[in-house]
Design brief:
about 200 residues; two-stranded antiparallel sheet; about 25% strand
Length: about 200
């Protein structure tokens, strides 16, 4: 598919700078990028380590969930990246929902408040925004992925334009594709469980 060149901003809630550097070095080595390509990555991508820092988009104040200043900090950081790279922001990655959410995961009202903050950032920056989330333990062993594999309130999926599940290949998928059950752990399954703009 035709794509546009752009910059990428990642908010990584579980990594420190050393871990981010290690992972990006490993990716660049695996892809066999040359020095010019590595420089392009350095110019166009910013990954902020939020390990040990408060990355919440919402927090409870007198029993009610309200927005924090962090979304505006992300908007400011994105504008700096766009100015330096000379390219529009193409993707904002928020890893993960458990770090940006300041309320109860199973509360619809709380999930709505956090997703409203995500929408605010996405609209201000006019950028595709990806919020990562863990799957509940109930999803383990299922033959097919569905919207229930996104942890917490259904509002997380309801307020997203699309939802994807990435997991180890199931026994049923391995059988269908002719892969030995003992080898399926070497594969991942990517499923579109919601898509407002096309088929799931």
């Amino acid at each position: 598919k035709q794509t546009k060149t752009g910059s990428v901003l990642l908010i990584l809630g579980e990594e420190d700078q050393e871990e981010i550097d290690r992972r990006f070095n490993a990716i660049c080595s695996y892809l066999k990028l040359d020095q010019h390509q590595i420089q392009l990555v350095d110019d166009r991508l910013r990954a902020y380590p939020m390990h040990g820092l408060d990355a919440r988009f919402t927090k409870a104040i007198e029993g009610f969930l309200e927005g924090t200043d962090f979304p505006d900090e992300i908007i400011a950081a994105a504008k700096v990246l766009v100015d330096k790279s000379g390219l529009p922001l193409a993707l904002l990655g928020l890893d993960h929902a458990g770090r940006i959410h300041g309320g109860e995961f199973n509360s619809r009202e709380d999930a709505v408040q956090t997703m409203m903050q995500v929408e605010y950032v996405a609209k201000k920056l006019e950028v595709a925004t990806l919020v990562l989330a863990h799957s509940p333990k109930t999803s383990i062993g299922k033959e097919e992925s569905d919207q229930n594999d996104v942890t917490g309130s259904a509002a997380w999926v309801d307020l997203a334009r699309a939802a994807f599940v990435l997991r180890v290949m199931s026994e049923a998928e391995a059988k269908k594709l002719g892969i030995l059950n003992t080898a399926r752990g070497s594969y991942v399954s990517f499923t579109v469980v919601k898509n407002n703009y096309g088929p799931t």
